[in-house]
Amino acid sequence: MTQHVPLLIGGEFVQSETSQWLPVTNPATQEVLAQVPCATSAEVDRAVSVAQQAFDSWKETAVGDRARLMLRYQALLKEHHDELAELLAQETGKTFEDAKGDVWRGIEVVEHACNIASLSMGETVENVARKIDCYSVTQPLGVCVGITPFNFPAMIPLWMFPMAIACGNTFVLKPSEQDPLTPMRLAELFKEAGAPDGLLQIVHGTKDVVNQLLTHKDTPAISFVGSVAVGEHIYRTGTDHMKRVQAFAGAKNHMVVMPDASKNQVISNIAGASVGAGGQRCMAISVAVFVGESRQWIEEVRDALAKVRPGAWNDPQAGYGPLINPQARERVLRLIQEGKDAGADCILDGSECAVEGYPDGNWVGPTMFRNVTRDMSIYQEEIFGPVLIALEVDTLDEAIALINENPYGNGTSIFTSSGAAARKYQHEIKVGQVGINVPVPVPLPMFSFTGWRKSFYGDQHAYGKQAVKFYTETKTVTARWFEDDIVSGPNMTIQLK
Ligand code: NAD
User: Fold this and answer.
1) How far, in Å, is the centroid of ligand 1 from the Cα of 292?
2) Residue 496: pLDDT band by 50, 70, 90 thresholds?
3) Is there an atom of ligand 1 within 6 Å of 230 CB?
4) What's the 182 CA to ligand 1 centre distance in angstroms?
5) Percent of the chain with pLDDT strictly greater than 70
6) Where does residue 11 fall: left (phi above 0), alpha (psi -120 to 50 degrees), or beta otherwise?
7) Residue with the nearest Cα to atom 18 of ligand 1?
8) The ligand 1 atom nearest the CA atom of 456
9) Which of 27, 122, 148, 162 lies at a CB distance of 3.0 to 4.6 Å from 113, suitable for a disulfide?
10) Would you say 443 and 464 are in contact if contact means Cβ atoms under 8 Å apart?
11) Per-residue confidence at 157, pLDDT binned at 50, 70, 90?
12) Based on C-alpha coordinates, what's the Rg of the chain?
């Protein structure tokens, strides 16, 4: 019998009473793995109200206890690492190795959350005036909401709820309806780690559920990761309702190849960075900008891409898996066709890709274009498929100018052996994450995950370092201490002289 994915409300895994269910499918076979509900409005309301009630006591819980919950959770996630990766691989189609990376990057954020006491320290200045001290404290916000995309069903929910909860908030997660099984397993393990009821709720569904959370009077902070169109809607609606919103959106990431780069390094990195995960990464390299003589390497790059073979999650030889659903495949195939029709040279064509034993998979083979102009849809749009565009320019200045004109600003990289070129690039490029001889520069959580222009909406870039700022309010206290003040605390009575 097909599994019906439950909701998580108040510590209970409950069946939704909705009549609307969506299939969760294995993208390599179309086998239906489960049915996921579109939660009813009453269920969404209940999730928020239970989270609101739990907040009252959780915000008063000692910071050490909050950190210890994260320590137990981190240990459990590590113990279940491979099991999580296997589940994740089946519902996303990712290769096992790639799925393990997805889980691991999430665990790193939980490790970061274990350090919540140090991360949430305020500041103090004594004697801002005679006998007047000034200090700040951080306090949680309330019920925080997370809305996550399909492409990292472990890492991205883990960017959000552990940091929010460690800060003293409670949380309602609306995971992608396309792969909700991994987030549910993350929630089971969180409960097993000892999370009190009501800290984390999970509601499933699509835009109606999201809109209800976005406009609810008791959800002060919204974190979103997904496409630009939805990110813009989330940011507009959330801020219209006077909420704190961070929306991480789409990308078109460029890699600059300088003629003084190590050719072998470029060629060995570019294949994984562009077609790895089927190009379904917000940090995938989708445009390689060959500067000057490096254009001579384009054919070799194509040959490297041609060697990458898609396959099922448990095929150790597979370079990447199928696209998430048949519509995503159709969209990528349409864009490839548009590129050809617009006159670009398709020097490697993966549109007819088939994988033996998996006739129904959403396969697209590695694809590469050259002679692309910037007005073509394959350059304008985020393709989110295994498609690499090669552009050619004469100078580094030209490369920087074209990247800075691009509407997206998520990630970029430069391959060069010149310190001067690398320094100029990191200084002048208007993009959030910059790699120098590193193809996919995803920072660790002690830094922030950033994004410029259309790749990020909001005034915080919170997954790591800044997450505490997003998930807390700062209160600044200015205190005048008189000669004979008595300061009382739970364990002390101090006579100030
Ligand atoms: P998506 O925007 O379709 O969906 C994201 C979430 O929004 C899902 O939970 C979905 O149910 C919900 N949603 C979808 N349509 C909605 C609507 N009309 N109103 C309200 N909510 C809606 O994104 P996706 O296809 O799941 O993920 C891929 C996208 O995410 C890509 O564009 C990728 O670049 C982006 N992404 C960005 C980052 C980043 O850090 N910048 C990271 C990962 C993915």
Assistant:
1) 37
2) very low
3) yes
4) 17
5) 96
6) left
7) 207
8) 41
9) 162
10) yes
11) very high
12) 24
455 lines ligand 1 (CB under 6 A): yes
For ligand 1, atom 22, which residue shows the shortest CA distance?
207
pLDDT in the model for residue 459 = 76
Whole-structure pTM value = 0.93
Which residues are annotated as catalytic?
282
233 close to ligand 1 (CB < 6 Angstrom): yes
Confidence of residue 483 (pLDDT cuts 50, 70, 90): low
pLDDT at 130: 84
Contact 289, 255 (CB under 8 A): yes
Q: How many whole angstroms from 224 Cα to the centroid of ligand 1?
A: 8
HEC assignment per residue over the chain:
CCEECCEEECCEEECCCCCCEEEEECCCCCCEEEEEECCCHHHHHHHHHHHHHHHHHHCCCCHHHHHHHHHHHHHHHHHCHHHHHHHHHHHHCCCHHHHHHHHHHHHHHHHHHCCHHHHCCCCEEEEEECCEEEEEEEEECCEEEEECCCCCCCHHHHHHHHHHHHCCCEEEEECCCCCCHHHHHHHHHHHHCCCCCCCEEECCCCHHHHHHHHHCCCCCEEEEECCHHHHHHHHHHHHHCCCEEEEECCCCEEEEECCCCCHHHHHHHHHHHHHHHHHCCCCCEEEEEEEHHHHHHHHHHHHHHHCCCECCCCCCCCCECCCCCHHHHHHHHHHHHHHHHCCCEEEECCCCCCCCCCCCCCCCCCEEEECCCCCCHHHHCCCCCCEEEEEEECCHHHHHHHHHHCCEECEEEEECCCHHHHHHHHHHCCCCEEEECCCCCCCCCCCCCCCEECCEECCCCCCCCCHHHHCEEEEEEEEECCCCCEEEECCEEEECC
**Is residue 438 within 8 Å of residue 413, measured between CB atoms?**
yes
Q: Residue type for 416, please? A: T
Q: Is 318 in the pocket of ligand 1 (CB under 6 A)?
A: no
**Residue 476: which pLDDT band, with cuts at 50, 70 and 90?**
confident
Q: Is 297 in the pocket of ligand 1 (CB under 6 A)?
A: no
User: Which token pair is 15?
Assistant: 């069946």
**What's the pLDDT band for 131 if we cut at 50, 70, 90?**
confident
Of the pLDDT bands very low, low, confident and very high (cuts 50, 70, 90), residue 469 is confident
d(CA 355, CA 364): 10
